[in-house]
Design brief:
single chain; 231 residues; alpha/beta; Rossmann fold; eight-stranded mixed β-sheet; two-stranded antiparallel ribbon; 8 helices; binds S-adenosylmethionine
Length: 231
């Protein structure tokens, strides 16, 4: 099947995500493998927001998938801080065009994200806030416009979980470089986790050096295996 050109990030000659299963893929790789619902509930019960880090905001597809995933759960009064980064931000209209393929399933969530995203000026580097008020609670997205290592170093608190989603390591080795993943490990709580779609040996080695014990899980969307790490 030909990939529509608007799905390809021309900076890396790589798709933003799997075309068919992108919401299910996020659920499996990043949500279920990280026991996300239980951990969000536990942090919120303790009076703390659950803190997510992400390398590669792209179209915001994982944030949309997360809104759907929590909406379908029994969790309410949820408080999440979601720190992400994007070096090459797309326009709101392109975000809408890409995500619109999922409208039947997550129309309200797409509109919430795109509305918030068009309210920020992505020509200005540094932190931007996207307030996603949902029936189940709030996701406060803090999006860093700039390079991933800058964002990780600018974090004022460690994350409970990291979604590592910055294109394949062959197409974009920079977002998997050991220096960056070491900084990710340093900004992860003890008992925190990370997850990614790639099991490439360079990525595994850098994550282990960053303090993560790795586990392979069954893959999806054409990937045999995916990775999860425990700090
Ligand atoms: C696979 S794509 C987006 C995935 C995103 N989570 C989604 O589902 O739409 C990875 C994103 O990382 C961004 N990116 C790549 N290298 C980066 C870097 N060094 N710093 C910040 N962002 C980067 C790319 O521009 C791209 O938008």
């Amino acid at each position: 099947m030909l990939t529509p050109s608007y799905l390809v990030n021309e900076k890396f000659d790589d798709r933003y995500f799997d075309v068919v299963n992108a919401l299910d893929e996020a659920q499996q790789i990043h949500f279920r493998n990280n026991d996300l619902l239980e951990r969000i509930a536990s942090a919120n019960r303790a009076g703390k927001p659950f803190v997510i880090g992400e390398t590669g905001f792209g179209t915001g597809r994982i944030a949309v998938a997360l809104m759907e995933y929590i909406k379908m759960s029994s969790l309410r009064d949820v408080a999440i801080e979601y720190y992400s980064v994007e070096l090459y931000p797309i326009s709101p209209s392109r975000m809408l065009a890409i995500l619109d393929g999922f409208r039947d399933r997550v129309g309200a969530e797409i509109d919430a994200l795109v509305d918030a995203y068009q309210g920020i000026d992505t020509s200005i580097p540094g932190w931007h806030s996207l307030h996603l008020r949902q029936p189940f609670g709030t996701i406060e997205v803090k999006l860093w416009i700039g390079e991933a290592l800058e964002m990780v170093e600018a974090l004022e608190k460690p994350c409970d979980v990291w979604f590592l989603d910055g294109h394949g390591p062959k197409k974009n080795p920079s977002i998997w470089r050991p220096e960056l993943l070491l900084a990710v490990g340093q900004r992860t709580i003890a008992g925190g986790t990370c997850s990614t779609f790639t099991v490439a040996s360079a990525v595994r080695n850098a994550l282990m050096a960053a303090g993560f014990t790795l586990k392979r899980h069954p893959g999806c969307g054409g990937k045999k295996e995916v990775l999860q790490g425990l700090k």
